[in-house]
Amino acid sequence: MDAFTRTHRTGSTKQHIKGVVSMVQKLKQASSKKKASAALALTVATSMVLAACGGGSSNTESGTNASTDSGSSKATTLKVEVFDRGNSPKGSTITNNYLTNFVQDNFGTPNNINMEFVPVPRSEETNKLNVLMASGSDVPDIVFTYDSGTFYRYAQQGGLTDLTELLDQYGPNLKQFLTDETLAYGQLEGKQYGLPAKRSHLGKYSSFIRQDWLDKLGLPVPQTTDELYTTLKAFKEQDPGQTGGKVIPLGMSIAPAQYEPLIWSFIKPMTEEESYTLTQQLSSRDYPILLPGFKDAMSFMNKLYNEGLMSPDFSLDKDKTKLSENVTKGLVGFFSEDDMNPYYPDGMYATLQKNNANAVLSAVDVYTNEEGKHPKPEYSPIGMYIMIPKASKHAAEAIKYLDWMASGDNLFQMQNGVEGENYTLVNDVPVVNADAADEIKNRLYNQGDMAIISNGKQLGDADKNVEAYVVGMPEKYQEDTRKALTISRTDTIKPILFDKPIEAQAKYGTSLLDKFNEIIVKLTMVKPDQFDSTYDQMIKEYLANGGQAILDERTAAYKAMKQ
């Protein structure tokens, strides 16, 4: 039993047994109509307890993926985790559907491998993965997580297979597809412990303005932050939307999509060392609280708020619900948001136009830095972390499977289906056949969870990947969507990556993120004559509560990385 299993098995088994006891109690309450199925489930639950206590493995498999060996005693069973979102259409299950059969027929059978897909509820991803990892021999050969902290913890505790040599030997196509940039996120001190999925679109944010308000006032589209300020004042003073004094020139919430484009535009140019050491990573996002220019950004937000140019209740709007409501009611003149988010069917713009057919919401790139650029963060080039547990006896087959997915047009077929049935190619971009029968449409209901080496559709280059998003939108919003996605990829700031985890970030990240939000709120809402003293006090508290520890560790890590 390895160190990882020893660390996690006892607690995991207790949780497992507790869950099964709860299941048994629920089964006792089953109606008489369900006694037969309840008895069957009780039998399965009991076997699960025995397996958990004994540390043994279960050989039970379901659907068409059962390990029948097809008449050959040498067949291998490869277990692969798959998210279960409870959305399987009629005639399919999460372990037996069009794509599981596609994988079996095109990879499994030709290689004498029986594919077994192990369902994990999406809502219980991390907890269920911890149980699987602690089970030793019961863990699937391929698992994954979106949480970088979980990945690093497994790697540091010896729970993952070192894939460095296996990738060279069995994954040439996979390496070429993922690229060194993506693979770097799965490395720990030079060894490849994870295979991060490749993200197809890195853009994060765009901004949006009421074009019909500008037209009514005879104003041009603002091109800079200063011009935006002038426009916001005109919106407030002249109320072109005839809101009866309820106008909100700048829509704001305490969600990153609203404040990050503004704040990062004030950050000043830095050396590499300053960007590595002064940036604070909380959760999976880089925060500029200690970077030069952060105070200037907060001073500008303070000015907007105190002049009545910003959402008055932004501090209570953590999930953007109030912002969305105000936009759709026609109260907001300008706001920032996740790139194409307003243009989704039944989204903010569609609802706004239902309320006001003459409303026009245009994507714009306004916030400027001192160099005249429009800086904004971009996503890291990865999606989930794909891992092969140390307990797996089929690491080579696992790499071969992922390499197969990256080979030829296998990924394309898994993401898009069959040409002429699921899609039609237009300028090399697959356009979904909207009039296809439900049976055909349902083939790909789980493609995002099966095509695990990619986050988003991969069509060969970034422009085509973006166009795939565009053609998936309602036709009347496609040009707006294209512009918003282009803006989201312009003058972007890449996330900072160290070659090992920063322990202080994991230790203090959650509490410091709460502190950061408190800083945003207080520095925005405080009276202007109290801004400087409040800023000094809030930064002092931030550093004392873990910010200094992160700063010190990042400084040491940067020096070590440069040696």
UniProtKB/TrEMBL annotation:
The keyword Zinc-finger appears for this protein: no
Keyword field contains Membrane: yes
Highest rank taxon of the organism: Bacteria
Xref: InterPro entries: Bact_solute-bd_prot1, SBP
Keywords: Cell membrane, Lipoprotein, Membrane, Palmitate, Signal
Segments crossing the lipid bilayer: none
Protein name: Putative aldouronate transport system substrate-binding protein
